[in-house]
Known about the structure:
By secondary structure, the protein is mainly beta. It has helices at 3-6, 96-104, and strands at residues 13-22, 26-37, 48-51, 57-62, 67-72, 83-86, 89-94, 116-121, 125-131, 136-141. It has one domain (3-141). Helices cover 9% and strands 47% of the residues. The protein is globular, with a radius of gyration of 16 Å. The mean pLDDT is 90.
Amino acid sequence: xxxxxxxxxxxxxxxxxxxxxxxxxxxxxxxxxxxxxxxxxxxxxxxxxxxxxxxxxxxxxxxxxxxxxxxxxxxxxxxxxxxxxxxxxxxxxxxxxxxxxxxxxxxxxxxxxxxxxxxxxxxxxxxxxxxxxxxxxxxxxxx
Length: 143
């Protein structure tokens, strides 16, 4: 499975089960798929969100990254400036984070090489990763 295969998934919410950094500049994310159960007469205020046991749990590994950030989803602003493909999994063409990397680091397309901005918009977490390598996607739990 490739990251581009995840770009069209928009019928489920994502939940980050684990965020782990190990080795030298390696990032690992464990992602679950969740769905929203509609409001009921008994539960008039909130919809319930449940893990979808029919969807796999996936591990996303960036073997090398230039930078990554984790934001609380409650503080993220929608920005029309940003251009990307995808919904909950995103591949950015233009973003404030790419601008920051260009202005605040020495990373260029020459060194360490052409890089991309990957985004994962989950319940509770927004994760942005800039990397020269596409992440490795593995199914770690099938139903």
